[in-house]
Amino acid sequence: MNGETSPTRDGLGDMGMLASLKAMLRNSLWCAAQRRGSVWTRAAVVSLPVGCLRALLRQGDLWWQHRVDGVVLAKTILSPLVTLGVAVMSCAATWVERQRTSNRQT
Q1: pLDDT tens digits for 47-82?
Q2: Which of 4, 39, 53, 99 is 20 to 30 A distant from 33 in Cα terms?
Q3: Cβ neighbourhood burial of 101 (10 Å; 0-12, 13-18, 19+)
Q4: pLDDT tens digits, residue range 4-53?
């Protein structure tokens, strides 16, 4: 073998397995972040008021004039949900980064 990495069954060497393990750890951290209540709470506190304000500014005049149809209703519902989705991803990214930093320090 003269110092080379030995291939595994799938053709990856030791470095390939290490990269694969790092990817699995990264994915498991993202899954763990999505299951954390604190991530969802922080995202909801930040994003739902902003999303509702966006919906009010964009579709409020149509609601005020009673010209609500299916499209306006869908936009009004989706605006806070899109904002929530972006905030959840941001809060999850922060949580994952904190976990990685604490794992490096220990």
Answers
A1: 999 999 999 999 999 999 999 999 999 999 999 999
A2: 53
A3: exposed
A4: 444 445 555 666 766 776 676 667 888 888 899 999 999 999 999 999 99
Q: In angstroms, rounded to a whole number, what is the distance separating the alpha carbons of residues 59 and 43?
A: 23
Contact 33, 41 (CB under 8 A): no
Residue carrying structure tokens 């470095």 = 15
Residue 18: C-alpha distances to residues 23, 28, 67 (Å): 9, 15, 59
58, two tokens = 């964009």
What's the Cα-to-Cα distance from 52 to each of 14, 45, 73, rounded to whole Å?
Answer: 51, 12, 13
> Distance between CA 12 and CA 9 in Å, rounded?
7
Residue 43 CA to residue 83 CA, distance in Å, equals 9
